[in-house]
Amino acid sequence: MSDPVASAKTNPVPPDPATAWLSRLAGKFVVIDGPDGSGKSTQLDRFVAECESHRVPLAKVRDPGGTRVGERIRDILLNRDHDDMGIRCEMLLYMASRAELVDEQVRPGLKAGKLVLGDRFVSSTLAYQGTAGGLTAREITAAAEAATGGLWPDITILLDVDTATANTRMTGSAPKGAKPDPTLSLFADRMEAKGDAFHARVRQGYLDQAAANPDRYLVIDATGTPEQVWSNLLAQLRAHTIAQ
């Protein structure tokens, strides 16, 4: 009688071509970002479930936060008692949290061969504190280089949604058949008070980044249903060179 274990070693089952691309993301740093109300949390959860179902080694991280020190910084950043915080102080606090995250979570995850899936990263700072807040991309990028030791995502998936749709989702006044996003987000804290004009600039900041770095950004139309957005995200990511 043949040994099934030995047979499996000498005659391995070929990977399913429909999902093999997902395994090629192991050892990569993938970030999902976008304005609040874009459905980011929903798509992150779907991504995690997809990786787990195909046994892709995964480390999910959130920014700001994700570490003991980072969570304390997050509390400061999103607390309405700190509405008078200066924009440069705000930016540097994000970078401090990010430095801990990279050292404690991102680099170790990549070294272990995991797909590191990030919930926001420097792209958020460039949009919120940069385009919308008035800091230059040059000074933010310089601070990011110092904070991360030069580590940048292999790909940033940008979920794009207009401000009106985002507001509808976040306030719970979604049209019949649609579900409001119940997750805690920047809209629910300090950033909400900045108003629609601010968030319109945030959206433009994200789009400007993607236009300037098309090889490292995927722009996904996030105005559809969660299922439509997920299908589009998978199709674009699979076709990208990072998954080849």
Automatic annotation (TrEMBL):
It catalyses: dTMP + ATP = dTDP + ADP. Keywords: ATP-binding, Kinase, Nucleotide biosynthesis, Nucleotide-binding, Transferase. It is an enzyme of class 2 (transferase). The keyword Transferase applies. SUPFAM superfamilies: P-loop containing nucleoside triphosphate hydrolases. Residues 32-229 form the Thymidylate kinase-like domain. One of its GO terms (cellular component) is cytosol. The keyword ATP-binding applies. GO terms for biological process: dTDP biosynthetic process; dTTP biosynthetic process; dUDP biosynthetic process. GO terms for molecular function: ATP binding; dTMP kinase activity. Signal peptide: none annotated. InterPro entries: P-loop_NTPase, Thymidylate_kin-like_dom, Thymidylate_kin_CS, Thymidylate_kinase. Its EC number is 2.7.4.9. Belongs to the thymidylate kinase family. This is dTMP kinase.
